[in-house]
């Protein structure tokens, strides 16, 4: 699962209510550029007097990855195979938000360690176990089990990211097939 690397720039919506809009709209439902209204965002390049380094993926969250042109140049084919890149309104840089449209029921809930709300919905997944036969050939996906699913990426995605020298993300292994 991608995570923002400490010390690198962030990308935040200008309006507070657009955080929730991102949660709702970057959910695996194809938006298409004709239906998409770019969200105004700003880059956060310093915090408490500390300068952040430039990032090929300014961090917003694992549910909504942001990419600059350099990352799209390297990962574009792979990204477009599993989702869509939608423009954001940013005066500081050309940035795109990634909407993975491959939402697959791959979570093995019985084998995973899950905390639930009283109504049975999943609150948090402490240990992920995916059904290998479902995810083995998928490089980017979300799961339908959470209201706001993180974006999961394959080892191949990580290898392409690292080999190209892209900066700003690190990757947490949440599951490894036996």
Q: Could you characterize the architecture of this molecule?
A:
- The chain has 178 residues and is an alpha+beta fold.
- It is 22% helix and 26% strand.
- The chain contains 5 helices and 13 strands.
- A 3-stranded antiparallel sheet has the order 6-8-7, covered by helices on one side.
- Strand 9 and strand 10 form a beta hairpin.
- The longest helix has 14 residues, at 69-82.
- The radius of gyration is 16 Å and the shape is globular.
- The two termini are 18 Å apart.
- The mean pLDDT is 94.
Question: Would you kindly provide a brief summary of this structure?
Answer:
This protein has about 180 residues and is an alpha+beta fold. It has five helices and 13 strands.
Extended strand count? 13
Distance between the termini: 18 Å
Radius of gyration over all CA atoms, rounded: 16 Å
Contiguous low-pLDDT stretches (5 residues minimum) are none
**Order of strands in the sheet with the most strands?**
6-8-7
The shape, in one word, is globular
N-to-C order of helices and strands: EEHHEEEEHEEEEHEEHE
The percent of residues in helical segments reads 10-25%
Average pLDDT over all residues = 94
Strand content: 25-35%
Which structural class is indicated by helix and strand composition?
Answer: alpha+beta
Biggest pleated-sheet summary: 3 strands, antiparallel
Please report the number of helical segments: 5
Write the topology of this structure.
Elements: E1 2-4, E2 10-13, H1 17-25, H2 32-35, E3 41-44, E4 46-47, E5 50-51, E6 66-68, H3 69-82, E7 83-87, E8 95-100, E9 113-116, E10 122-127, H4 132-135, E11 140-141, E12 152-153, H5 155-163, E13 169-171
Antiparallel strand pairs: 1-13, 2-3, 4-5, 6-8, 7-8, 9-10, 11-12
């Amino acid at each position: 699962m991608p995570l923002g690397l400490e010390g690198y720039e962030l990308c935040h919506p200008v309006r507070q209510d657009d955080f929730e809009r991102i949660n709702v709209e970057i959910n695996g439902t194809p938006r298409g550029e004709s239906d998409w209204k770019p969200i105004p965002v700003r880059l956060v390049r310093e915090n408490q007097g500390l300068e952040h380094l430039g990032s090929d993926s300014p961090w917003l969250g694992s549910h909504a990855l942001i990419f600059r042109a350099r990352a799209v140049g390297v990962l574009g084919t792979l990204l477009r195979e599993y989702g869509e890149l939608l423009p954001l309104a940013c005066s500081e840089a050309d940035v795109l938000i990634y909407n993975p449209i491959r939402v697959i029921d791959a979570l093995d809930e019985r084998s995973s360690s899950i905390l639930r709300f009283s109504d049975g919905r999943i609150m948090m997944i402490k240990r992920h176990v995916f059904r290998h036969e479902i995810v083995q050939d998928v490089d980017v996906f979300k799961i339908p089990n959470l209201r706001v699913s993180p974006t999961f990426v394959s080892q191949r995605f990580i290898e392409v990211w690292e080999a190209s020298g892209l900066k700003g993300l690190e990757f947490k292994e949440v599951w490894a097939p036996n």
